[in-house]
């Protein structure tokens, strides 16, 4: 009888240890799941921002393409491949500086 009681106590102790290890493992898995859910949420947010930027850039590209077609009466590829007209007596960089200086002198417009 004493042996049977000892066997049952040992079995109960093993079951208890097994339950404790299972509980520990479950807690580790819960922590990992929480961390993974947070990462997933951050990635979804990042994806959403990237999709918004892509839409914005697509809209800008379409707008620029339409502007080139409407204002220059040519296709964007033709406009890009067209050579710059020669500037008389100035380099392109100095002309840009000159125009920027003039804009600065004019100050804010349409305020």
Would you mind describing this structure in some detail?
The protein starts with a helix and ends in a 5-residue tail after the last helix. The model has no long low-confidence stretch (mean pLDDT 93). The longest helix has 71 residues, at 2-72. It has one domain (2-106). 0% of the residues are buried. The chain is rod-shaped, with a radius of gyration of 36 Å. It is an all-alpha fold and 111 residues long. It has helices at 2-72, 76-81, 92-106. The protein contains 3 helices and no strands.
Throw out a few tags for this protein:
111 residues
Topology of helices and strands:
Layout: H1 2-72, H2 76-81, H3 92-106
What is the gist of this entry?
With 111 residues, this protein is mainly alpha-helical. 83% of the residues lie in helices and 0% in strands.
Indicate the structural class.
mainly alpha
Helical segment tally?
A: 3
Element-by-element helix/strand order? HHH
Radius of gyration: 36 Å
Helix percentage range: over 70%
Question: What count of domains describes the coordinates?
Answer: 1
Q: Strand-residue fraction? A: under 5%
Largest sheet, strands/sense/barrel: none
For the residues shown, what is the average pLDDT? 93
Got a strand count?
0
What gap, in angstroms, lies between the N and C termini? 99 Å
Shape: rod-shaped
The low-confidence runs, each spanning 5 or more residues with pLDDT under 50, are: none
């Amino acid at each position: 009888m004493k042996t049977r009681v000892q066997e049952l106590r040992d079995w109960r102790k093993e079951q208890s240890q097994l339950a404790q290890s299972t509980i520990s493992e479950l807690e580790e898995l819960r922590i990992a799941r929480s961390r993974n859910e947070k990462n997933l949420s951050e990635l979804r947010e990042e994806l959403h921002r990237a999709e918004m930027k892509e839409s914005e850039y697509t809209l800008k590209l379409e707008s620029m393409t339409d502007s080139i077609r409407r204002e220059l009466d040519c296709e964007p590829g033709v406009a890009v491949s067209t050579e710059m007209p020669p500037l008389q007596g100035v380099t392109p960089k100095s002309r840009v500086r000159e125009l920027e200086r003039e804009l600065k002198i004019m100050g804010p417009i349409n305020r």
